[in-house]
From TrEMBL:
PANTHER family: HISTONE DEACETYLASE 12, HISTONE DEACETYLASE HDAC1-RELATED. Residues 10-261 form the Histone deacetylase domain. Keywords: Hydrolase. This is Histone deacetylase/AcuC/AphA family protein. The keyword Metal-binding does not apply. The lineage of its organism: Bacteria, Pseudomonadati, Bacteroidota, Sphingobacteriia, Sphingobacteriales. It comes from Arcticibacter svalbardensis MN12-7. InterPro entries: HDAC_classIV, HDACs, His_deacetylse_dom, His_deacetylse_dom_sf, Ureohydrolase_dom_sf. Belongs to the histone deacetylase family. One of its GO terms (molecular function) is hydrolase activity.
Length: 279
């Protein structure tokens, strides 16, 4: 997608980042993938042997470059975790492939980058109590399924209830929102729920899926946040992590507004907030 080029380009233009802040990941290894995805599914994906029905569900034609892209996205999120442990926060300009379950591809997602990274942190004893905050407009159904029996990872999804996926999985906390919700009501809910979660869970690492498909301009979203409201949403999440001194990895997630400037500016705002709070 064009936004993956425009976002870093805009941040470089503003001087918010330099080339030293940008890294290009390699490919995640099979042993790490298998911490989150079933072996049969992974091998069929790897060998381009998904069924026609599975490919239709994924939304993309299945190709080798596409699989390689998924491998790099997942490794980018893992690398971001290491940077977050060092600096407090790190971003994957792509990622947020939260519809991929342990044995399925769906909604343009084949490998679940934040689930893979969370299980990697647990396996390497780099975290013991993880919170995944998914504020994409769509429920993180794949993430919910992967961690449905894992008490070391708490999944929180706040999404448009009457939107894709139409068969939801059960997160540890789901908040389904009505169509058309605007800034104040959305931010009031988040401001109420997020501190309670931190008090209850006491995470030592947080993943944030910061999809900007919550915007009123988004053609697939069904919510009605302004760009300023979306930025305030990011401020709530990032400020809470900063106050608790919890390292944070951010994957950018969805954004499907008609005007590319709405997508890029909303995503760049997440970086601007991070710069103000962390650096």
């Amino acid at each position: 997608m064009l936004k993956y080029e425009l976002i870093p380009g805009q941040l470089l233009y503003e001087g918010l980042i330099t080339q030293e802040n940008i890294f290009s990941p390699g490919k995640v290894t099979e042993d790490i993938i298998l911490l989150s995805h079933q072996q049969d599914y992974w091998e069929r994906l790897r060998d381009l042997r998904l069924s026609p029905a599975e490919i239709r569900r994924s939304g993309f034609p299945l190709t080798r470059p596409l699989v390689d892209r998924e491998l790099r996205i997942a490794q980018g999120t893992i690398a971001g975790c290491h940077y977050a442990l060092q600096y407090g926060i790190a971003f994957n300009v792509a990622g947020g492939t939260h519809h991929a379950g342990s044995n399925w591809a769906e909604g343009f997602c084949f490998l679940n980058d934040q689930a893979i990274a969370a299980n990697y942190l647990l396996s390497e004893h780099l975290a013991q109590n993880i919170l995944i905050v998914d504020l994409d407009v769509h429920q993180g159904n794949g993430t919910a399924e992967i961690f449905s029996n894992n008490n070391k990872v708490f999944t929180f999804s706040m999404h448009a209830e009457k939107n894709f996926p139409f068969r939801k999985e059960k997160s540890d906390l789901d908040i389904g929102l009505p169509n058309g919700m605007e800034d104040q009501e959305y931010l009031d809910i988040l401001n109420t729920q997020l501190p309670k979660l931190f008090e209850k869970i006491k995470p030592d690492f947080v993943f944030y899926l910061s999809g900007v498909d919550v915007l009123a301009s988004d053609k697939l979203g069904h919510l009605s946040l302004s760009r300023a409201g979306c930025k305030s949403r990011d401020e709530i999440v990032l400020r809470t992590c900063k106050q608790w001194n919890i390292p944070l990895q951010v994957s950018m997630g969805g954004g499907y507004s008609v005007q590319m400037i709405d997508i890029v500016e909303a995503h760049c705002n997440t970086y601007r907030v991070a710069d103000q709070l962390f650096f």
